[in-house]
Amino acid sequence: MPAEDRAARVRALLESVRAAGRTALTAPEGRVIAEAYGIAVPDEELAADVDQAVAAAARIGGPVVLKIVSPDILHKTEAGGVVVGVEGAAEVRAAFHRIVANARAYDAGARVTGVQVQELLPAGREVIVGAVTDPAFGKVVAFGLGGVLVEVLRDVTFRLAPVSADEALSMLGSVRSAEVLRGVRGQAGVDRRAVAELIRRVSELVADFPEIGEVDLNPVIATDRGAVAADIRVILAERPQPARRTYTREEILASMRRLMQPRAVAVIGASQEPGKIGNSVMRNLLDGGFAGEIHPVNPRAGDILGRKAYPSIADVPGEVDVAVFAVPARSVAAALEEAGRKGVPNAVLIPSGFAETGEHALQAEIVAIAERHGVRLLGPNIYGYYSTWQDLCATFCTPYDVKGPVALTSQSGGIGMAILGFARTTRTGVSAIVGLGNKADLDEDDLLTWFGEDPHTQCVAMHLEDLKDGRAFVAAARATVPKKPVVVLKAGRTAAGARAAGSHTGALAGDDAVYDDILRQAGVIRAPGLNDMLEYARALPVLPTPRGDNVVIITGAGGSGVLLSDAVTDNGLSLMEIPPDLDEAFRRFIPPFGAAGNPVDITGGEPPSTYEATIRLGLADPRVHALVLGYWHTVVTPPAAFAELTARVVAEFRERGVAKPVVASLAGDVEVEEACRYLFERGVVAYPYTTEMPVAVLGAKYRWARAAGLLGGGP
Amino acid sequence: MPAEDRAARVRALLESVRAAGRTALTAPEGRVIAEAYGIAVPDEELAADVDQAVAAAARIGGPVVLKIVSPDILHKTEAGGVVVGVEGAAEVRAAFHRIVANARAYDAGARVTGVQVQELLPAGREVIVGAVTDPAFGKVVAFGLGGVLVEVLRDVTFRLAPVSADEALSMLGSVRSAEVLRGVRGQAGVDRRAVAELIRRVSELVADFPEIGEVDLNPVIATDRGAVAADIRVILAERPQPARRTYTREEILASMRRLMQPRAVAVIGASQEPGKIGNSVMRNLLDGGFAGEIHPVNPRAGDILGRKAYPSIADVPGEVDVAVFAVPARSVAAALEEAGRKGVPNAVLIPSGFAETGEHALQAEIVAIAERHGVRLLGPNIYGYYSTWQDLCATFCTPYDVKGPVALTSQSGGIGMAILGFARTTRTGVSAIVGLGNKADLDEDDLLTWFGEDPHTQCVAMHLEDLKDGRAFVAAARATVPKKPVVVLKAGRTAAGARAAGSHTGALAGDDAVYDDILRQAGVIRAPGLNDMLEYARALPVLPTPRGDNVVIITGAGGSGVLLSDAVTDNGLSLMEIPPDLDEAFRRFIPPFGAAGNPVDITGGEPPSTYEATIRLGLADPRVHALVLGYWHTVVTPPAAFAELTARVVAEFRERGVAKPVVASLAGDVEVEEACRYLFERGVVAYPYTTEMPVAVLGAKYRWARAAGLLGGGP
Fold first, then answer.
1. Boundaries of each ATP-grasp domain copy (chains A, B) (predicted)?
2. pTM for the full model?
3. Which of A417, A569, A642 is best to mutate for the B interface (most B CBs within 10 A)?
4. Separation of alpha carbons A500 and A506, rounded Å
């Protein structure tokens, strides 16, 4: 039917349901919606008497199911009120009389409305298609295999609704039991297009009607010739929250530019008194070397740390890009009002004492002030932020000055401190570290929008507990991922973790399965833990992007080769099948008992020249796309020698324009630690005492390269 | 039937199959075995004519299946030769005629032997029961859920055969889809005892008859009233390898004691010449401070590094406990023969050039010499070994002198070097580091037998690529685990890894699923990677054993609390439901907006006294069994203050006899690294920049405590 008729029909139906004070649709109402959206359901008809039943069965054709319809009989099967697979007038007639008689015997007083005559669905694979309203992502469509096994094993996949036909089709391949749908043990596969089309239509339905909270087609019977929903369940949603003020991409970029590259910063609550946050922030701004204007604001002091102080931000001369608030929570509103009037675009709210301590009204008040004036808020309840390329340290923590390509953000202050310590000890090059705290306004999507454009930033790593607007985040991620990797540590993955998230931020942690699927679809690299996020952030910008899937392990320690191979498989990478000519070439350099193939095992007693020759081979051969090195500390090739030759050869090839990712696991005495530092600084990602981390990082780089469309194969 | 009759009957059958040159048993032969072992199979009978078919159906009772039997018809269903669910003389008669007619129509020349009349099995849950011969573990029984989903998802569990009734029953709970067997969606659960009994009988069968290589009952139809094998498949094994010489536990302990606590060590191939292995070994023995006798053996030199040298080990005066071989592979046999004649119980074979380079005959030769003389071989192809409490460094690597409770072994020299470097940088207390290399003789089970008894060793960590005798290892592990944790890093887990294992040691890497289940059953803690093994080894002896399941997180950083909660769930631990009185007690110390419950979030701005008061509460309350601390670096509580107070309080409680495991994650600037070292040395397992590792280590301790029977609940 035409789209407008369809919409009108469904809207009228939903309004009548709402008017009746119901949230769940009845089965006939569900059928109306199914028909409007072209969702196949079994043909059926209510027969008031036996002749109507015979006629209905004849019209439907083929075997049918008869079911008693009575408001007094809840358990039809128990009452003998269901007969399956009758065909032809005589059988239908007999069955009709039998179930009516059974119903009477079961409950003599039961009112019998009639008998439902329903098409008997063919045997097929049971699948589930549904849609839910996720607190972070809104309408989300779900697909999984039906039946108890998958209900037990929870094998289900999600996408943002609406989905395209291709996206819907991809869902059939995203479940663990995907092979089943292709047909196994001689059974035919399901009609993939029909199932995908059903998914697409359900996703369209919930996208068209936000007032629909949940749809459940369970089971859908999928055969090699179609897919029919045996049952459809539709539930209306709660009324949505009022929308917050939104900003365009251009507005976001404009205010974020002034936040991250300010010319003038005011510190509201700047203090002379050591130990006060307003003192630490001032000192860090000054010590950090920020070249712009720094204006202390304090009603009492005329001069703070050598800078003229102003009683109010209104008194500060000229434009101010950022106002850093280092005053108690109760003093924020008034000062924010003044900042808004002055046209300050960014307020960095360090103080705690808002939603995280139950002061929701106070937080709502400052959000309202900010929205009125168009001031963007960072925080509250944060450590502040670093913009290293501006020598800007607007925090009460210690400065950080290793400029580099990674932007790191955290929802939690503790995690922010871990970022700082890790970055310092590993000398990670950083473009920004930003605390998000309560996220009263600025959110991961705003930051990502900026970092996506920021030329200093080549990798973004974000710790988060929830997303206030999952769709905006997905949009920002999709815009960023083709340019640079986005790593996310999503805390509150597990039930226990989600509960702690609830008590920490008052945020409703989403179902992790939804986050996992949708972040992957957005091309985000999900870090399994804090340490992984930090290592990915440190290593990803160091590694060149691979140009293909062929990974080669070159190892001096056979034992490392085995563990590195395990890690390659664990990380979804492919050990290259070495072509005979390359195998022959490797063999020329390694002892006869060394193993060519892959891993290339050069054996432990070899001099630096063997490492060098084989690494050169791997870099020179265009069929090889990434190298994983396993070094074994020996007297013949000490760690420093290995580090020197590897760094030199890799640099030589990069100068020639051959840039392949090279990662290394160093097994040896403590000198390997210095060798790893040496290598890391020279673009080879190297770790001591672990065969897992170098390959995990390479795996993360590959996941990004795939998501960015640089390697074929989607996210 | 009586066991001896049963055995005779099966043995006769298997011999006749072998005599016929077959390895696969026919269906009727399978039935004979099933009947002998009381494995229920569908009742069936071959009917030569229609009257026999009617009689057979009447005897069997209930609905039956008829199947054409013809040597010329392979695809019975295609030929219309199968009818399912006929009952009563008339139906059986009609069906008989129909399928014979169909067969004739299908192939006019087909010879028809008759019609098989078979009991129709009831609808039920399909499961699979089987047994295979694993290269490492021998006869292994398998259980899983049948059907395509589980075939696709590979949800299966293994045990060493034979199993007890209880072990068999435990297998039903060990599959991921275990819930299905208990009954879901209103379906009845299966008869668990009947399924378990079937498993037990299959395991008994393969244990009784090692010549049976594989048994497959697929599918078994399990209902709420029994379990019947719809099909049984039996395949004979290859002839077994000839057995190697075995040693009793007492013999193993006697020779291992002399290896690990020797009074006299000879170095065969000792050398004056720096750079030679025979020189490094001599120097390490001397520099390491070994107090026993050290005898260089070298045909030329009269004096090596100040010790009198002997031309042959035969010339060394007195008893020698260990002969360390530092001569080329080709010279080993002759010297080993002399060592054997002298009665030296242990030969440590450093040289490579044996099986790992394809020299299998050379390795077989030295094994034969060793077996003849009862000399135990360590290696060949190893870095040697350390026995730190004896100040014994019999390696060509550098000495290691931090005496402590962990014994570490590795199959690979590279991994051995990683162990050494890691131990040195973390100052891990070590009782021994042993290289196993080719494992021509001494194996993990010998070492484990010794370390289980060694009072210096409180934890054993082993890197291995294969087990030559998985059953001996399981026996040694079962004897050791009740006393001390055994950590295993099994390399070659994945297909790619297993292939590399094959090329490295010539060992056939077993199916990882078998290793995984059987190591878990043996109570072994499996480390997922090299770094995990090293961290578990370092941390497990530091942690006291928990007395119960209640884990409490106390955190200054809410963000760490969420991540620590995730880690608690990931590691199978339980966040305690805090009782109201304890909750009240915690609340007294934390700000009103801090979250009690679990995690206990004391919030970030608190002084050391709040950490101290809450940690004291957790240690003092007997309902709390383990603490996970999340520290957030602030000016108010700097890292050193947190470390000092935590170590002091923990020590105070331990002095009072209250020893609970306490682990900590420190989020902060680089000073947290020193704080972690301080804590670790004082019995608190602490890590910087990771919320995962402290909880992973606690999880490993819990897994051990459960396996050791110290916590209720088996492995």
1. 31-236
2. 0.92
3. A417
4. 9
